[in-house]
Amino acid sequence: MPRFFGAAALFVLLAVTFAAPAGADSTLQIGIDDDGLMQRNPDTTAPFAAQWQQNGIDQSRLTLVWTRIAPAANSTKMPAGFNPRDPNSPGYNWGDVDRAVAALEAEGIDISILVASPNPYWVSLVPSRRSNSYKPNPKALGDFMYAVATRYKGRVSSYLPMNEPNLWQYITPQYSCSSKSAKSCTLSGAAIYRDLYRSAYSAVKAADPAASVWIGALAPHGRAGTSPTASSPGPRAFFQAMACVKSNYAVDTKSPGCKGYKPLLTDGIAHHPHTVMLAPTQRDPGDAITTANIPALTAIVDRLQSKGRVLNSTAAGAAQKTKHLDVFLDEYGVQTNPPDKLQGLSLKTQDEYYQQVAYMMWKNPRVKLLAFYLWYDEPYTAAKSWAWQSGVFFANGKAKPSGTSFQHPFWVDLPKGSKSATVWGQVRTTDT
What we know:
alpha/beta, 12 helices, 27% helix
């Protein structure tokens, strides 16, 4: 549980540590993801980019929903004359993204771009299914990401191909089964993502060699559904299948696409370590990776790297297998009640968790980014119970306790049975 002490008690602590301000000497960037403010309303883009800069925000991720950018989303055929690799091809709609990139760039905020489904029907390898998630064509994703990286060359520093690719809602099928037996099922979603990622990585590097491409951006939990087609694997199983290794890390040559496997190159590991109704230190059961067990994520990746299945493209030669990959937590949020009565925690608890998790990730040298999702709550109604209420402000602009403490998080780490504590704090403010 969080431990807060009065001023007198602090004088007796035997170990006292204060962190450097975010964006200064600290290697941990603090980010905010809020496309509602950045892309959905022209009146909020520039003012909130300025507000974020004043609050010491280092980084912001923009989500490019494929159907919002590319033309003919509900057609099974790509429009005649449309060139998906050319960002100036008629049909592309870049207006919201252009405005957001310009506003963030003007404030000196580092920008990442995440490409996300729903996808146009014509992007599928089987467009006749009229699905926004079924077997996206790797070439189509590569063409799109080439256009994106060409348009924003030198302005966007990192790219993430596909959002939470281990969820069946975003890539289908996650499992392919030859019979009703679960033993006949293979992790086809990981194989689909493997090909998508390869195409996207090559496309971004061709358009903007200086930009980084991060692999992963997985959801933290697997989700068992009513059938294999409505189920999602956890991060460990997904990463292993993606890299064509078995659960014991022995090489797999029989699963789809694994014969003749070539290593995946990446500049970093992205992950979404949300905890649902749990403290940042409390582990979820099963195959889950949240804030509580980030070392489990790095252990998986390190093992894949040491076996040459995933390589660090920021290094050269043999170091690609030995130079540890950095971790970028590009989405983390805790929802509050009010207003979310289903998955919301108290305002006080969210505030404490946000300060605690900032300390935890600052303490982990592998973690280079902690991005909070969102700044403002999404509007909450009974019809939109799926919306997120993890902002540090309510939808009406009133600050939550986490919004009040955001610029100066503070945490006292007193391990059970210890006579000394670490006192940690940050001052997040503009560098200018």
